[in-house]
Amino acid sequence: LEEAVASLRHDVDELRAELRSTQEALQTLASTVPLEFTVVQYNILAGYLGENTQPWFLYGVDLHGPGGPERRKSIMQKYNERDPETGQLVHNGWPEYAEGILTPDEIRNVEEYDEEFFRWEVRRERLIEQIARMNADIVSLVECDHFDDFFQPSMSARGYAGVYRKRPRDSSDDGCAIFWKHSKFDLVSYEGMDFIDCVDVHTGSTAKDRCALLALLRSKTHRKKHVIAISVHLARNPEDPFMDHLRAKQVAQVFRLLSEFASRCTAIAPTENTAVVMCGDLNATNFAKLRGLSLALAAITSARVHPFVWDAQDVPTTATSVTTSRNVRIDALLFQTSRLKLVNKSEAPALSEPIPNAIYPSDHLPLRARFQWKSVLDREMSLARAWFRVMTDQSLCDTPPLTMGELRALWVIFDWNHEGRFTRSKLRRVSHFLGLHLDVAMENAIFDKMSAAEVDTNVGDVLDSVPNIKFNVDVSSCGDDKEEVVDFKRFCAAYDVAIYSMRNEQLPYLIEAFKAFDENGDGMISVDELVNVLQACSPVPISLKSGMLFDSFRDGSGSVAYGEFARSIMQRRRLNVESSIPRQTSMEAPATTPTSRPRS
């Protein structure tokens, strides 16, 4: 017995040693290999909604040929027809609302197609097989029902854990689900919300229909890295532009929840170690308009927002929902570009027929993308390239203006030897490192901007409060020759002049937001137009004071042009992000380690 116990102890000691060795190997791997993970977004077509007998499907009937669109329109009218006195639907479902428009043979074809391709018992196995083939680390499922009795056990058997939030409406059985691989992530926290679409001013009652779900996940291999996964399903009818206001209100509520959620978790998951991925069926065909309205709402109402709001980018895709009545791109995967790099994405199939069918079990296609965590150097090189695009007057510059924290990080790169000055030789060195072509004319143009920039007194006061920056004189001797030298204040002032005098403010999402506020299309936003859109979109109470963000309203001119609109929104973005950075009192020069990006 003693020999057996001793042998077992020896085996345990060997296993412990092997475990320590494995842990050390993982730590070494985490320090040398960046974190990569894949994300899938999928609207699975809820079981209780997946019926070919719904008027927007009706597969098996030619409603595109001669007279087809008129017949579908008549079917929709009968489907929605209500008794004027009782408000009840006149026709008692399928096939009553199609009788007299579809022939008996066509009705039979619809029912046979439904049995073969729409029935839940058939589709569910195809759905789980398709999800398993994509082998994602994080999966967002929207319009998801049967969570407890099917998806959770099926995904668990494949190595996933998940959380779920049902839509608030009693008659709706679906909701949003987030799954993650056990082997890749641990759940730290999660939270859900129901969108408030409107509030009765007399009773205080609210109308709620859709929901969102957030999950904070910690990497098992890179223990300091976290991902906030968001799953959303916005208001329906993407073909109706008037619903964009409601969808913008819903996105604004998601952004507010994200800011609050990240703030509560900041002790566990600091902003600089956390990336955001937002997945969902946005039910909007114009993502730029949706994002622009949400950004404008955040700026005008002075709402605190997470940095993701400003640097989110959607993964490029083709149409994501293909039926007999629509072929649209409404599903999205958005990622935080300051933290993540898109390294791969799935190719959309060339569909010759509407879905669902024998291959694709939903009326939406799944989206899959692979992301890699950006290193500090990757992030700061991206900032440097954005700075060069602005300072060399490149017309295509679609990134928001750099914040003071980002300019501070750039100064560390340009002042690479920690002298506290920026020179032509340093400019050439950085451009060479970035692989950018910089000719003499471009170099001269940059330093002409530096020389012409006036350092405003107020700007100087702001910069004086920025820690870890060493200021020098504007001209000094470099070897045997005189060389133009720029200090940090002038470096920032020149950038500010350049950024607001070029096409950078022509950001697509701000243009779309301006069009939404400019209700009469005259190229100006009036006070009334501003208030009208805010009342339709804002998730928080608003007043005329909200418009005081714009100088034109303060000086009494009563209207705002696009230039002022864009500059004011972007300036508010810089203040919003920068004001959350903890201030330090030291005025010492920056350390050799690059400064981190601003915290939210």
3D architecture notes:
39% of the residues lie in helices and 19% in strands. It is of the alpha+beta class and 600 residues long. It has a six-stranded mixed β-sheet, with helices on one face. Strands 5-6-7-8-12-9 form a six-stranded mixed β-sheet. Strand 3 and strand 4 form a beta hairpin.
Number of helices: 18
Question: What is the number of strand segments?
Answer: 19
Going across the major beta sheet, what is the strand order?
A: 3-4-2-1-14-13
Overall average residue pLDDT: 84
Compute the CA-based radius of gyration. Answer: 28 Å
What's a concise summary of this model?
Helix content is about 40%, strand content about 20%. The chain is α+β, with helices and mostly antiparallel strands. The chain starts with a helix and ends in a 22-residue tail after the last helix.
What is the secondary structure topology, with strand pairs?
Layout (H helix, E strand, L loop, with lengths): L1 H31 L3 E8 L24 H13 L23 H15 L1 H15 L3 E7 L2 H10 L3 E7 L8 E7 L3 E15 L6 E14 L6 E8 L10 H21 L9 E8 L5 H14 L7 H4 E3 L6 E2 L4 E2 L2 E6 L3 E6 L21 E7 L2 H16 L12 H11 L7 E2 H11 L5 H13 L4 H8 L10 E4 L2 E6 L1 H12 L8 H10 L7 E2 H11 L13 H4 L4 E2 L1 H17 L22
Parallel strand pairs: 1-2, 7-8
Antiparallel strand pairs: 1-14, 2-4, 3-4, 5-6, 6-7, 8-12, 9-12, 10-11, 13-14, 15-17, 16-17, 18-19
Helix pairs in contact: 6-7, 7-15, 7-18, 9-10, 12-14
